Amino acid sequence: LRFASAAPPTSPWAKQIMRDAANVGAESGGAIKIEAFFNSQLGSENDTIAQIARGRVDMGSFTANAAALQIPQIALLNLPLFFDNQTQRDCVLDKHLSETTAQAFAAKGLHFVRWGEVGPIHLPGKQAYATPESIKGIKVGVVTNKMTTEFWQAMGANPVPTAVAEVSSSMQTGLIDTYPTPYAFYVPSGLSKIATVMTKFPLWESAGVVLANKRTYDKMPAATRAAFDRGFAKTSNAQVRGEIRGVDAALTKAHQAAGGEVIQATDEQRADWRANLPPVWQRIADDMGAEGKAYYKLMVEGKQACGTGQ
Questions:
Q1: Which neighbouring-strand residues pair with 97?
Q2: Confidence of residue 126 (pLDDT cuts 50, 70, 90)
Q3: What sign does the dihedral 189-191-196-201 (CA atoms) show?
Q4: C-alpha span between 271 and 274 (Å, rounded)
Q5: Do the strands 110-120 and 261-264 form a parallel or antiparallel pair, or are they unpaired?
Q6: Helix, strand, coil distribution of the chain in percent, nearest 5
Q7: What is the C-alpha to C-alpha distance for residues 63 and 68, in angstroms, rounded to an integer?
Q8: pLDDT of res. 59
């Protein structure tokens, strides 16, 4: 099985993928071999997720924003500052959205393997972006979908479609001023050497997904398919998330030690960002049609059911 990923080969995501490949290989007695292609070798996230749906690539891991090209409503998971905290957000994904998400992907020819984790999203650049005023008029690199486009426009910034593999060059040439990103990409990709000032929030905890071509998955013999499932189940969602969040803290220190600057957004500044967002969240969901409204409703109900998590 060819596995597509935009992750740098030295990143924590790459290590997680290689662990999954080893686990699936062991559980299947070698009947399944997952061959990973990192650094967008098989194409951009936008291209490869479509190739998986068509069966030209077998599987891969994707950000929710890229996956939104197949099911737009999944981008709502990354609504900035929507969740109160990590515990609440994890509860909503695992207990209230997994089944609906899997069904939506299945309708597109994709098998939902499990949640992935991209990590806490911050704003790198050549200056700090801690306040809503500081981002007005700037160029923000984005994976294009309704959520990213409408949010940044609502904040007064200019969203610029930017492929993951082109982030560093776009930052160097001034095509973009910032690219919302986790530390797990910021440092291993070398972006931290170009955009040396990191404003830490996080704006959101970015979800990810692991997907496979549904036809390929369904055609596996029952025993082989069960081994595939067991291999991925050996690592829990909590472990995957914990590893990425741990990297965020460790690489913050590494960036500072290398001479980089870290600006921590205060609670007051985060509150300023969030103050006018609820109507924006609802408008973004409404603009996605019936599926967006239904998914957003599940998210709101999930928040209420999960509580603050504190």
A1: none
A2: very high
A3: negative
A4: 5
A5: unpaired
A6: 55, 15, 30
A7: 9
A8: 98
Percent of the chain with pLDDT over 90: 85
DSSP 266: P
Q: 100 and 298 in contact (C-beta within 8 Å)?
A: yes
Both tokens of 137, joined, read 């008029």
Average pLDDT of every residue of the chain: 94
- Give CA–CA dist 251/260, Å, rounded: 11
Query: Parallel, antiparallel, or unpaired: how do β-strands 35-37 and 2-4 relate?
Result: parallel
Token pair 């036809």: residue: 215
The rounded distance, in Å, linking the Cα atoms of 65 and 28 is 32
Q: Structure pTM?
A: 0.87
Tallying the residues shown for the chain, one arrives at: 310
- Taking the C-alpha atoms of residue 170 and residue 189, their distance in angstroms, rounded to an integer, is 13
- Measured CA to CA, the distance from residue 253 to residue 194 in angstroms comes to 17
Residue 228: which residues within 8 A CB-CB, separation 6 or more?
A: 24, 27, 28, 32, 217, 220
Beta bridge partners of 198: 124, 262
The amino acid present at 163, given as its one-letter code, is A
Task: Give the residue among 102, 289, 286, 264 at the shortest CA–CA distance from 198.
Answer: 264
pLDDT value of residue 125: 97
Spatial distance between the Cα atoms of 142 and 175, rounded to a whole number of angstroms:
12
Distance of CA 157 to the CA centre of its chain: 21
Angle between helices 277-287 and 146-154 (to 10 degrees): 150
Three-class DSSP labels, 139-158: EEEECCCHHHHHHHHHCCCE
**Cα–Cα separations (whole angstroms), residue 188 to 87, 164, 181, 279:** 27, 13, 12, 36
Instruction: Give me the amino acid identity at 115.
Output: W
